[in-house]
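Ticket 4471: requesting a sanity check on a complex prediction with molybdenum atom. Repro inputs:
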Amino acid sequence: MSSRQSDRREFLKRGAALAGGLGLAAAKPASAQLPDPEGMIVGTDDLVAYGKRSRFEDSKRIPHGGRHSPDAFGLDFHIAAPLQESVGVITPSSLHYVGTTRGSYVPDIDPAKHRLMIHGLVDRELVFTMEELRRFPSVTRLHFIECAGNRSRSSHTTVQETHGMTSCAEWTGVLLSTLLEEAGVQDGGEWIVAEGVEEVKGASTIPVNKAMDDCILCYGMNGEAVRPQQGYPLRLLVPGFEGIFNVKWLRRIKVVDQYYMTYNDYGHLTQDPATAALGYQIGPKSVITFPSGSQRLPEPGFYEISGLAWSGGGKVARVEISTDGGRSWQDADIRGEPQPMAHTRFSMNWTWDGNECELQSRCTDELGQVQPSRAQVAAFWNQPPDQPVRVKGQDNSIQPWRIDSDGNVHNAII
Ligand SMILES: Nc1nc2c(c(=O)[nH]1)N[C@H]1C(S)=C(S)[C@@H](COP(=O)(O)O)O[C@H]1N2
Ligand SMILES: [Mo]
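Returned structure tokens:
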């Protein structure tokens, strides 16, 4: 027997043990016919030059929440990623969520003409071309971005609606600290203001300590140039902070001595540079992506529960899963080595007995911060216990999914 055959036998044996002999899809009789392909894909110059996915794959982004841009009436405010079909931790660039305060308009920037200016409280004002930026030492890091408006509501049916305004990519660029050191930050430079090219500028005020710590000026995303919707040719990455800080189409960084109330800053009322970062950081969070809302388990038997966990506070240290509505918890398996401020894939082998049940996941980060339940969040905001929970601020609460006895999965938020 070849080693591959024996691997397969071993898998089937283990599978049968896991599933108690019930409905493991892989265990079909060997006599089943092996179907032929539907045809052949005819090569074109375009396909040779830049590939595309199979026509049988239809995972897609959706406009989020029906909320329109405040200043581009009728256009989509944010676009959500299809987390229910995600595998691994990297969101393909084509499916990365899109956040914009300017509707669907995307600046069309010629990188040869683009410039980044660093000025304000610095010893030397600097202006860089893209070519010059690429000559600096670079870093490549996995980081998530999440919009602070990524919140679960009882009306949401899928994980794309409850959690789709977060994505994770491999980002490449120059550390902002490298350029700020070139420029020389002067005493009193407590904040930076980062600005994009559009009319509303997508500007944000960021503590200089964060800027010197781990912010990246990114020109690369998932192995190629940053996509236009993600800020081509240059975007700021502010790892772990709310999405709005990650300024796209970046053209200017000003070092300043006080908090600037920019268009984007109205939501951030913490203006003390010593403590601001805590308010801007995304809390420990996780969600089960399979099985999740609107999916269906075809029959009782073996399933791998799978999901994503992340935290603005650093690495994911632990993920627990409950299959009984939060009464008992088991440690999930964590895939690979968790990266700081990056989506982390977790999973757990599970046999569904066919009874109604409720799945939840709970993330603990390396700081020891634990993802709260919705009841804990409600108690924090002094909400009456007999009323539906209204999460204020960022929502990193635990997401419950109910599985009915017919296998249909529903959002269990009330
Ligand atoms: N220049 C600019 N940068 C911006 C925005 C914008 O409208 N303009 N939107 C912000 C918001 S609200 C979010 S949530 C993130 C989303 O990043 P993404 O589109 O790459 O997912 O970008 C931020 N950066
Ligand atoms: Mo956002």
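Notes from triage: The longest strand covers residues 166-175. Leaving this open until the requester confirms.
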